[in-house]
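In response to reviewer comment 3 from the previous cycle, which asked for concrete evidence that the modeling workflow produces usable outputs, we include below a single protein chain processed end to end. The sequence was submitted unchanged, and the resulting structure tokens are shown without manual editing.
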Amino acid sequence: MAEPAIETEELENLKVRPLEPGEDFNLVEDVIYRRRSNRSYLKKQVPEYLVRRILEAGRFAPSAGNAQPWKFIVVQDQKMIAEMTQDIVRVCKLAKQFLNYLEPGKGGREWLTKLLQRIRKNELHPIPLGAMYLIAEGKLGVWHGAPTVIPILVDMRAPGKPFVDAGIAGQNMVLTAHSLGLGTCWVSFIQPLEYYPKWRKKLGLRYPYKLVTSIALGYPKGNPDGHVNRETQAIDWFAEDGSFKVVY
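The workflow returned the following structure tokens.
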């Protein structure tokens, strides 16, 4: 039986205490700062009631016009995850043949890689491109052995920026998962499944829905990735008194 959704009245009764200057981090801040991408998981499956709690957190994410332009899919069938992984690896191997001009004898393809990087500069940035090579070579898992995979689809009919809305919903789920002692990792290498008719049919990848990313979910095995230094960004601050300053 499905767990009941959080009722509006219950939400209205939740009290948020103002934080005084100099106080320790509250629970939300603590989860945000402790979260790490996890790339090693136990085989123990995540129970349905916990997955539902995580999905519910995603459902309560803000979205333009409250359109909720997302669709979540839960995959816990290990055979299905293995098949998805196999097909993604196949696409990565094919792409590597055309894009990795650093391999001996393939320098002539440098022009193709650079052309595609200009057209699809985000997807073919050196960082995801390097990860794609590792997946193709079997040196990097797609979902790192996570027993649960949550593909996220976006409704392309939605107003505003539906991709942003879906990202907010996904982050709600990621933070909730970590607050429950689970590990997660964002995995956008799921997108090649759109090239396969069988996955388009099985996952409902037809208009208006587009597959954009996924979340690996499970119980962490050992310590997750260590602390990652975050660059301090310059922030332009226009103060209430009309003054301007740059803070870090």
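The beta strands are 70-72, 148-155, 183-186, 209-218, 235-238, 244-247. We consider this sufficient to address the reviewer's concern, and the full set will be provided in the supplementary archive.
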